[in-house]
Write a structure and sequence with these properties.
Helices cover 81% and strands 0% of the residues. It has helices at 2-20, 25-28, 31-47, 51-64, 72-92, 98-102, 108-111, 114-117, 120-135, 140-188, 195-249, 254-263, 273-290. The protein is elongated. The two termini are 42 Å apart.
Length: 291
């Protein structure tokens, strides 16, 4: 919701200041200049991107209007899930979790953590690498390399909408100049008109430059930054899973393994050592009761 508040603040600041200085909003109402700039930017975006890129952007935009899906509570739930499943594997052997990872939706363990179960990417990442751990044919180093490659590929793919929008933001001022130049050409073609009419035509032409700069730096660039920040958050949670699973593979007990995962989190969503310890203790007590 911060992005909506930011957009409103941009509009109020720009147009409020303009009217407060004695400007008339009617002079800025140039729909065809807006169509020219927005249409040219959209055409440039479509021509320079694939269908997959456009689909990724359409998927990303609704997400920026919602709260971040990876809050502190989600990370606590994730680490509790990892603790429970790693603890079961350590206690009863890796084969004991095979049924859970083959069908997470029917697993009693995964059912306790609905926020994680709803995230298909997280479930896929967790179960795929637990499956590799069960196979016993790969070393921790080999699995780490594979994890890094998958995370890098995921990060690159999810960065495509942000990069494309940044390119559009960079182009919008130039399209605004195009609109302004066309307006000036129109004004020069009417050079035989009275000064008042010429001044009106030139002022309308300048609206193109104004719109191009405003759209670029007031709307499109912030939207790209928000999508990029969401991408970083979705990559960080995969890194948390990666570090936790690798710590377990390297022989650390589940309680220490989730501590490794806690350490890679950003400070805004990272639980304290005591918070995580208490949460794990509660999870352990609950799993013992269920057992």
């Amino acid at each position: 919701m911060f992005i909506i508040f930011g957009f409103l603040l941009v509009l109020v600041s720009v147009f409020g200041s303009y009217t407060a200085l004695g400007g008339h909003l009617g002079a800025l109402y140039q729909p065809f200049e807006f169509i020219l700039i927005a249409g040219a930017a959209l055409g440039a975006y479509i021509s320079s991107n694939s269908g997959k890129s456009v689909a990724l952007l359409l998927q990303a935009i609704p997400g920026v209007l919602r709260a971040t899906p990876y809050s502190k509570s989600v990370y606590m739930e994730l680490m509790a899930l990892l603790y429970v499943i790693l603890n079961k594997a350590r206690r009863d052997g890796l084969m004991s979790i095979e049924g859970d990872i083959e069908d997470p939706k029917s697993s009693a363990i995964f059912a306790e953590y609905p926020s994680i179960l709803r995230d298909a990417k997280l479930i896929e990442f967790i179960t795929d690498y637990l499956r590799l751990m069960i196979s016993g044919n790969m070393s921790a180093f080999e699995i780490e390399t594979l994890m890094d490659q998958e995370i890098e590929a995921y990060h690159h793919e999810r960065d495509i909408p942000a990069h494309a929008l940044r390119a559009v933001a960079d182009a919008l001022p130039a399209f605004g100049i195009v609109a302004a130049v066309l307006g000036v050409i129109k004004a020069l073609a009417s050079v035989d008109q009275p000064p008042a009419i010429l001044a009106d035509l030139i002022s309308k032409a300048m609206v193109g430059t104004f719109l191009g700069v405003l759209l670029a730096y007031g709307f499109v660039a912030p939207l790209a930054s928000t999508i990029e920040r969401r991408t970083v958050g979705s990559v960080k949670i995969l890194e948390c899973i990666k570090v936790t699973l690798l710590a377990s593979m390297n022989g650390y007990p589940p309680q220490l393994a989730v501590e490794f995962g806690r350490k890679v989190l950003y400070s805004g969503v990272r639980p304290s050592f005591i918070e995580l310890e208490n949460h794990v203790r509660q999870t352990r007590s609950q799993s013992n009761k269920n057992a």
